């Protein structure tokens, strides 16, 4: 089959790579892609958030399946246009994508479906926000209600900072969701859905803060690893039973069945599993680690989901290896990233055993050099028999790559390697 992948980032590069390895997929295209994706498959420079442009390209290519990567095209209704035209699409409709596009909507769905999550208040002005902050106390959790590319959340013990973030959201015309703070380690679980049925992928953990020791501002993610050996037994089964399936049933009941990836952002607290947030697509950078371990051909699974036939899809098989990916970001990210620097060492990194480099914010200059064109530029994926070996491989790849101002964390998956992640006893 022919597959068209929509999106420009590292997540899309990982999806393209997995699809290219699928023996049933004869052709992969990507729009708009990036410099790394363009080295692997044909790319098309269209506006990924324009449903008409995506539909026209899918028709021109005679695509058997369209996979929508980022959240913005989903919120713009790209899937709706493709569904209306009868083209199988992996990615929820605009109405179903509200699970990510509106945190207030997601809270409403979770309440109706009795999904365990943090208590929350929706605030529309300063007084409501101040009252909610006082109700919950520190640490304060303030979330922009709309899409913010993973950067709309502030967690702080400083009440003034929390209120300032809320006011910035109000000034931009938005509302905020203020929540109780959830203790315990965080987990990302991607669940492939076809509206009724669901198949979980391997859990991963990502690292949001820009600096080591989880310091500095939030980013879209600075690295990830999978699997998570420290998780309680039956963790995935419990998430499916208490979170994924109730959410799917509630969405179907509302007349907006969910097809695509239900990204469950979870906290493993002393009171059990709690949903931090839902996303309506693969997470970045977790996808780079998760798909590096998937042995089952990806195309057939995504097509089965798009056609509502996931219960007939083959069982997922996973490599016994561990995957770690480390993001290298541009100078001054996550503020205004410095663009245009020429990247060196990519071939050397890719030549290392058990290492591959996924491109995100890259493009090509007039001389054919690969240059920095975004905030998070690359994700270097390392595979190994255990976390120590996978980390060693990933960081060996990072060491080969350079440009002026490049920055990356040195501690991705380090606590897990050292056995320092503590999970509260879930049996109490």
Automatic annotation (TrEMBL):
GO biological process, one term: purine nucleobase biosynthetic process
Pathway(s) of this molecule: Purine metabolism; IMP biosynthesis via de novo pathway; N(1)-(5-phospho-D-ribosyl)glycinamide from 5-phospho-alpha-D-ribose 1-diphosphate: step 2/2
Cofactor(s) recorded in Swiss-Prot or TrEMBL: Mg(2+); Mn(2+)
Highest taxon of source: Bacteria
Catalysed reactions, semicolon-separated: 5-phospho-beta-D-ribosylamine + glycine + ATP = N(1)-(5-phospho-beta-D-ribosyl)glycinamide + ADP + phosphate + H(+)
Enzyme nomenclature, EC number: 6.3.4.13
Keywords associated with the record: ATP-binding, Ligase, Nucleotide-binding, Purine biosynthesis
Domain ATP-grasp positions: 107-307
InterPro entries reported for this sequence: ATP-grasp, ATP_grasp_subdomain_1, PreATP-grasp_dom_sf, PRibGlycinamid_synth_ATP-grasp, PRibGlycinamide_synth, PRibGlycinamide_synth_C-dom, PRibGlycinamide_synth_C_sf, PRibGlycinamide_synth_CS
Keyword ATP-binding belongs to the record: yes
Key word Ligase present: yes
One term of GO molecular function: metal ion binding
Family, as annotated: Belongs to the GARS family.
HAMAP family, sorted: GARS
Name of the molecule in the record: Phosphoribosylamine--glycine ligase
């Amino acid at each position: 089959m022919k597959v068209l992948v929509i999106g420009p980032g590292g997540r899309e590069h990982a999806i393209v790579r997995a699809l290219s390895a699928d023996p049933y997929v004869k052709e992969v295209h990507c729009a708009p892609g990036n410099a790394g994706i363009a080295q692997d498959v044909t790319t098309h420079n269209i506006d990924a958030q324009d449903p008409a442009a995506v539909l026209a390209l899918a028709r021109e290519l005679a695509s058997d399946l369209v996979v929508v990567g980022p959240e913005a095209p989903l919120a713009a209704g790209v899937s709706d246009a493709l569904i209306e035209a009868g083209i199988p699409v992996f990615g929820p409709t605009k109405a179903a994508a509200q699970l990510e596009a509106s945190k207030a909507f997601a809270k409403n769905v979770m309440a109706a479906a009795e999904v365990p999550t943090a208590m929350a208040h929706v605030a529309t002005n300063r007084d409501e926000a101040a009252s909610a902050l006082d109700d919950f106390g520190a640490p304060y959790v303030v979330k922009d209600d709309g899409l913010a590319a993973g950067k709309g959340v502030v967690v702080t013990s400083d009440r003034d900072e929390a209120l300032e973030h809320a006011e910035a959201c109000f000034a931009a015309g938005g509302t905020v969701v203020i929540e109780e703070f959830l203790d315990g380690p965080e987990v990302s679980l991607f669940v492939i859905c076809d509206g009724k049925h669901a198949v979980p992928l391997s859990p991963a953990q990502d690292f949001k803060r820009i600096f080591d020791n989880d310091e500095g501002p939030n980013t879209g993610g600075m690295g990830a690893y999978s699997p998570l050996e420290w998780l309680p037994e039956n963790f995935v089964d419990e998430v499916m039973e208490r979170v994924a399936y109730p959410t799917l049933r509630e969405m179907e009941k509302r007349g907006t069945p969910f097809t695509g990836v239900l990204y469950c952002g979870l906290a493993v607290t002393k009171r059990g599993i709690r949903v931090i947030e839902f996303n309506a697509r693969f997470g970045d950078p977790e996808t780079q680690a998760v798909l590096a371990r998937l042995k089952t051909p990806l195309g057939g699974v995504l097509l089965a989901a798009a056609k509502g036939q996931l219960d007939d899809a083959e069982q997922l098989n996973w490599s016994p290896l561990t995957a770690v990916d480390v993001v290298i970001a541009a100078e001054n990210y996550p503020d205004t990233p410095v663009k245009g620097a020429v990247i060196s060492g990519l071939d050397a990194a890719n030549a290392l055993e058990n290492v591959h480099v996924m491109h995100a914010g890259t493009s090509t200059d007039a001389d054919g050099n690969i240059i920095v064109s975004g905030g998070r530029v690359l994700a270097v994926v390392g595979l190994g028999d255990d976390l120590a070996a996978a980390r060693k491989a990933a960081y060996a790849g990072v060491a080969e790559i350079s440009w002026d101002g490049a920055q990356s964390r040195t501690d991705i998956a380090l606590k897990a390697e050292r056995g320092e992640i503590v999970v509260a006893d879930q049996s109490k």
